Hints:
A: mainly alpha; B: mainly alpha
Amino acid sequence: MNGEMGTVPVFVKITEYKTVTSTLDTIRSKLNDARNNLNKINEIKNQEDSELKEWETSLEDVERKVEEINKALFEQPSI
Amino acid sequence: MKKVEEEPIFVGIRNPADVRRNLLEASKGVIGSLQKYERLKSTRGNKVVIVNKLKGDIKEISKLIYQLRTGLPTIKFKSEPKKAEPKIEPVIVKPKKAKKKVEAPKRHRTELDRLETELGEIEGKLNSIS
């Protein structure tokens, strides 16, 4: 019974046809906005990742420098 | 309490210019790191703003879809006729003294609960179609 209902065309009465089409248009437009915002978030996420990577490199650099200072002060053979 | 003074130790430095350069470069690096932190903070702030915008968009889409659903007529599909179930002799069970359970009133504790309930309702409607 259910299957039949699914295949047979049904005519429905839409009392506020214009409102329904306008709502559909707004939904489409909002979906577009959401898509754009999602793309922006992705871009920012990539930017964030690259900034974190830069941060890591900078810290590694400082670590190296401090290590060199340590070596120069305490790990060199006596003069 | 008096602080015990350490005896000074003299350490020889072969390349004092290098040590000084390394120290200055390390300071430069640390300041650079702080600058990067500020940039990251600002980027994260921008992300929060856009995530909130996206949240608003999705909420509005949800409202509009509800509006669309109410704008369209509801069609009730006839459910399949139930097959005659075999008669089962009723078994009389002596009722046990049921412990009185005080159930807490159902409340939508969180937004997640509310969404789950809504999802359940929609799934129920979908099942009634297929």
